[in-house]
Write a structure and sequence with these properties.
alpha/beta, 4-stranded antiparallel beta sheet, about 30% helix
Length: about 240
């Protein structure tokens, strides 16, 4: 068990490069940072600056060219692919930008499916999914297909599918990128409430508008170089970061 206030995630000299047209492209250059339990960290960078690559490394879907990632007492370099998959399954929740909802399944079915490996009873899975969706103000949308939901409602279903497994570490890729300010505010409130009640950790990647005041720290990535920004508390809640 980790000592109190120990980081849940720590990256050391994390680098990633690809060979393209006989040239080496560096998308991440010796990034070093840590995230402690209960923190919400915003990862900001324009498209093509390495945000998605960093998210893939953090969840163990990709391997760094150099450096290592420490997660909950384990160094990724010491893990097999099977062990990394088990870490993702049990402890990491990913909120995809494209949502990845099954179009032929209802909201309840999409959320309940996330529990198949953990809860044998279909009745219990469905009951938990219904309860969580109701808490997200989707009581009247339980049996609607994704195409019958608004974009904000679809996003809430996708978040419910992630949160129902109670992950320690949430990676959110542009969770408010396609939403208006009101819907985005609801999404942020849902995520922050979950973090507050569970002491989980969240990293949110964005290239544009996000309520920075709801984050504990801001990391900026430009040209593969990661830096930490100072959050100005007097800033308006909504702004385009640059």
């Amino acid at each position: 068990m980790m000592p109190i206030n120990a980081p849940l995630v720590r990256c050391e000299h994390l680098s990633k490069s690809f060979s393209m047209d006989h040239m080496e492209r560096h998308v991440l250059r010796e990034a070093e940072f840590q995230i402690c339990p209960g923190e919400t960290v915003l990862l900001f960078g324009k498209s093509g600056q390495g945000k998605s690559v960093l998210l893939s490394l953090l969840c163990g879907l990709d391997k760094p060219t150099m450096g290592d990632i420490y997660f909950d007492g384990i160094w990724y370099s010491s893990c097999t692919q099977k062990q990394l998959a088990e870490i993702r399954r049990k402890h990491i929740g990913i909120i995809f930008q494209n949502l990845n909802l099954i179009p032929s399944w209802t909201a309840v079915e999409n959320v309940a499916a996330a529990l198949e490996d953990f809860v044998p009873s279909a009745n219990i899975r469905n009951a938990r999914a219904r309860q969580l969706l109701e808490e997200m103000d989707l009581a009247d949308r339980l049996h609607h297909l994704p195409a019958e939901l608004s974009m904000g409602e679809q996003q809430r279903v996708a978040i419910a599918r992630t949160l129902i497994r109670e992950p320690k570490f949430i990676l959110a890729d542009e969770p408010t990128g396609n939403l208006d300010a009101v819907a985005a505010g609801q999404i942020v409130h849902l995520l922050r409430t979950y973090i507050h009640h569970t002491n989980s950790t969240m990293l949110i990647a964005t290239h544009g508008v996000f309520p920075a005041m709801n984050c504990d720290r801001i990391l900026n990535i430009t040209g593969g170089v990661l830096t930490q920004l100072v959050r100005i508390k007097s800033e308006p809640m909504w702004k385009v970061m640059s």
